């Protein structure tokens, strides 16, 4: 059993965008997750935090943009991970 | 929408409305759609944010807006169905929480024109004096024209008959000031000062010196404008600034210069003009008297909130004028604190007169036609030397035209009261 701290270490924030709002209608919720976390850890975190049954987890490693520039100079954005979590039919999560 | 109107008192109505669920839902949906067009959330294109998100961020604002829109619709429908004549804005006093899919009840309070019965306004018994331009008034006008054509030469020493004193005049009767510090020229030895006959007669100002204050006693005449002072003793105080003598054309010469056949012809013309100006003043006084009589004889409940609002507006206007006149903020604040509850009675009296005037105009079918307006605008255009069309456009833009219409209607009512009165 993982602690809350470990669970929230996996799920960083829900992603609320136009596209994710449409996916939510179909029971798929999008989260930004810890880069090193795997599908099993994500499923466990969603299950334990929201008390729902996870049917499927898809993940994608998002490449951070390189050679970005700000007033201090050049930098590279970090890579990050996005997870699309599909719940068991009929179950929902309250995210606004 | 089902609307009922209850009469709370002669000028207050309670409007109750039941808004059906589908109308509430439609209005809420419209409200959220409108706000969606204006806001942009990160991750969403403009207008594409989900309703849930909008409800969380702007829910209460949209509900308040929709409630106000529904209240406006209710008032509009109530005015149409129940022929209400509103005074100011209706106030929403109670409303259910608006939820999609549930009906809502709204209760509003509105002040309306009071219901009252007009007393008899024809054949009012009024006092009207016959105006008469006095000789000294005619002379004062002619003399002032004459002085403008010539030159005033300063004179050393005490004033003698025929000299002109420049100074300020104050007339008091007991504690009351009848004329406050009016500056002007006074002819020594003519026997009239500020329109009054000093007890010393034509010797009144003889011997006066520059820089001194001369006090004269006089009795107020029987035709003095303020009735309660007639026949009383008054004090005339004159602060003499300087003394001069007039050098220039005689009155007869000025009359010739002005194109009159003789001095007498000019005198008669001045007398005629003064007479008609006095007639006009008396007409105004008689109209005031008539309207006051009708208003006093009318029983009506007056709208409390509307009167308070108007009184507050008047005080604020006065405060704004004080700011404009350069008074300090502390002075204006002190004035506002002191006067915040004042003026309600004056506003009520003003409203009563306005309602009475309006009711008489309706009873007598007195209307201001386009022809009346055109005539008035043309006369004004001639006076100010500007094209009539330009004045009309300006009046239409700044809203003066409706004020002018009201003013002309009031004038028609006052004329009717004056014409139908009995003079005693």
Question: How does this structure look, described?
Answer:
The complex is a heterodimer of chains A (96) and B (424). By secondary structure, chain A is an alpha+beta fold. Chain A has one domain: Alpha-Beta Plaits, CATH 3.30.70. Helix content of chain A is 28%, strand content 34%. The radius of gyration of chain A is 15 Å and the shape is globular. The two termini of chain A are 28 Å apart. With 424 residues, chain B is an alpha+beta fold. Helices cover 48% and strands 19% of the residues of chain B. Chain B is built from eleven helices and eleven strands. In chain B, strands 6, 7, 8, 9 and 10 form a five-stranded antiparallel sheet that branches. The longest helix of chain B is centred in the middle third of the chain and has 34 residues, at 263-296. The A-B interface holds A 15-18, 20-21, 96 and B 43-45, 48-50, 52-53, 56.
Brief summary of the model shown:
The complex is a heterodimer of chains A (96) and B (424). Chain A is α+β, with helices and mostly antiparallel strands.
Relevant terms:
heterodimer; A: alpha+beta; Alpha-Beta Plaits; four-stranded antiparallel β-sheet; two-stranded antiparallel ribbon; 6 strands; B: 424 residues; alpha+beta; 11 helices; 11 strands
List segments of chain B where confidence is low: pLDDT < 50 over at least 5 consecutive residues. none
Largest sheet of chain A: 4 strands, antiparallel
Number of strands of chain B: 11
Name the helix and strand elements of chain B from N-terminus to C-terminus, one letter apiece: EEHHEEEHEEEEEHHHHHHHHE
Instruction: Give the CATH class of chain A.
Output: Alpha Beta
Strand content of chain A: 25-35%
First-to-last CA distance of chain A: 28 Å
Average pLDDT number of chain B: 84
Anisotropy-based shape of chain B: elongated
Counting DSSP H or I runs of 4 or more residues, the number of helices of chain A is 3
Share of helix of chain A, binned: 25-40%
Radius of gyration of chain B: 32 Å
**Series of H and E elements of chain A:** HEHEHEEEE
Label the structural class of chain A. Answer: alpha+beta
Q: What's the architecture of chain A, going by CATH?
A: 2-Layer Sandwich
Oligomeric nature of the chains: heterodimer
Greatest interface by residues involved: A-B, 7 and 9 residues
Kindly provide the radius of gyration of chain A, computed on alpha-carbon positions and rounded to a whole number of angstroms.
Answer: 15 Å
Helical content of chain B stands at 40-55%
């Amino acid at each position: 059993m993982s602690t809350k701290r470990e669970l929230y270490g996996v799920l960083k924030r829900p992603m609320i965008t136009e596209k994710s709002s449409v996916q939510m209608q179909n029971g798929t919720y999008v989260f930004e997750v810890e880069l090193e976390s795997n599908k099993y850890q994500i499923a466990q975190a969603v299950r334990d935090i929201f008390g729902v049954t996870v049917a499927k987890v898809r993940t994608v490693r998002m490449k951070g943009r390189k050679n970005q520039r700000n007033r201090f100079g050049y930098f590279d954005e970090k890579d990050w991970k996005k997870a699309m979590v599909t719940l068991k039919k009929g179950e929902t999560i309250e995210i606004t | 929408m089902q609307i009922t109107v209850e009469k709370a008192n002669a000028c207050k109505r309670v409007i109750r409305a039941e808004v059906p669920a589908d109308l509430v839902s439609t209005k809420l949906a419209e409200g959220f759609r409108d706000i969606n067009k204006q806001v942009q959330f990160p991750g969403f294109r403009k207008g594409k944010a989900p309703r849930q998100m909008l409800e969380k961020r702007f829910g209460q604002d949209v509900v308040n807006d929709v409630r106000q829109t529904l209240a406006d619709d209710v008032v509009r429908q109530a005015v149409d169905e129940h022929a209400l004549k509103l005074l100011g804005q209706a106030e929403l006093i109670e409303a259910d929480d608006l939820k999609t899919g549930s009906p809502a009840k709204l209760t509003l309070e509105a002040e309306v024109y009071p219901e009252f019965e007009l007393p008899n306004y024809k054949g009012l018994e009024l006092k009207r004096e016959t105006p008469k331009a006095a000789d000294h008034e005619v002379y004062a006008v002619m003399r002032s024209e004459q002085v403008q054509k010539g030159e005033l030469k300063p004179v050393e020493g005490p004033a003698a008959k025929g000299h002109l004193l420049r100074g300020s005049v104050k007339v008091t009767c007991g504690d009351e000031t009848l004329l406050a510090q009016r500056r002007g020229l006074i002819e020594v030895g003519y026997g009239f000062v500020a329109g009054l006959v000093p007890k010393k007669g034509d010797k009144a100002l003889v011997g006066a010196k520059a820089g001194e204050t001369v006090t004269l006693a006089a009795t107020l005449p029987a035709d003095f404008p303020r009735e309660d002072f007639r026949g009383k003793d008054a004090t005339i105080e004159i602060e003499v600034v300087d003394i001069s003598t007039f050098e220039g054309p005689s009155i007869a010469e000025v009359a010739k210069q002005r194109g009159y056949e003789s001095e007498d012809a000019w005198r008669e013309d001045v007398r005629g003009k003064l007479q008609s100006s006095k007639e006009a003043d008396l007409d105004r006084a008689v109209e005031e008297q008539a309207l006051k009589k009708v208003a006093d004889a009318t029983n009506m409940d007056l709208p409390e909130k509307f009167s308070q609002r108007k009184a507050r507006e008047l005080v604020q206007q006065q405060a704004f004028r004080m700011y404009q006149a350069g008074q300090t903020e502390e002075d204006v604040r002190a004035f506002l604190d002191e006067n915040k509850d004042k003026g309600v009675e004056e506003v009520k009296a003003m409203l009563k007169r306005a309602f009475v005037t309006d009711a008489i105009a309706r009873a007598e079918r007195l209307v201001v036609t386009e022809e009346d307006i055109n005539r008035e605008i043309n006369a004004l255009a001639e006076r100010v030397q500007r094209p009539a069309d330009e004045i009309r456009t300006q009046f239409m833009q700044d809203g003066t035209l409706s004020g002018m219409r009201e003013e002309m209607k009031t004038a028609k009512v006052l004329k009717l009261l004056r014409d139908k009165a009995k003079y005693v």
